[in-house]
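Memo to structure team: turn this sequence into structure tokens by end of day. - J.P.
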Amino acid sequence: MHTLLELEPIKRFIDVVGKEIEKYFGKEEGCIVYLQPDGTFYGFALYEWLKARGKNMTITTMEDDGRGLEENKARGRKVLIVDNDVVTGKGYKRSMEALRIRKKELKLKDIKFATSYDRVGVADFSVGKYSTETIWNLADLDAIDLKIIQTLSVNGRESFADIGKKINLSSVAVKNRVDKLLKERVIRIEAVFNMDQFYALCAQIYVEADPKAVEKMIEKFEKMQEVYHLVRVTGIYNLLIGIGGQSWQNIHEFIEQEVRSNPGVRKIFITTGETPILPKTISLATS
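Reply from structure team:
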């Protein structure tokens, strides 16, 4: 489990909520109940971390309706349900209620809930809260998301079933996660082509122009397939355009017809070379 604890999302989870969870268990015997599939990595990582700190812990799993719980592992202990995130709160409510109705029977001393992210603010322990409008960043992705993204980046056509076999998830669970990543605009699916199959050389065009001319060029160039790099820059020039071409003539025509002809362009500096080392591909989509 040492590898799990080194994964950045899990390390962050432990760093933020670990001490509070340790305090919750105190000197009592504890049980981690992780919800499958999303809570698996967090549950096992937390279990190993607490065991390493001398806590008397067991670990088991269950469906969010309580099915599959190994009752002997939870009996007479403080329980912590662990999941990856709380989206609508339904899973949280079902799993908490499933144990609450068995609390007396199993002599559970307490029941709490921990998650990485909590959309609705119900969990007892969480790294943070976010709404559906939140912009994602790398720290928001959990270990399973990162493995899925890594697999797709190598082979974007790999089936959900094959990805699931590599990370111990069902094809449905993988599809749900990919759909979520697409919805949150963390990833996107698009057709790309290899630059060196279409272009023989490239050019970097540094442009000094007035602000209105820059805005008009950006609006035009972000829709053009041969433009693979477009960025505002500071210094003498205020716009950098990277283009691919099949010949020097193509490059020259683009500069004269698409760049130099724009009103407001004051100065141009050009460097040319082979097709770029990175990026190797260009999206076929246009804005």
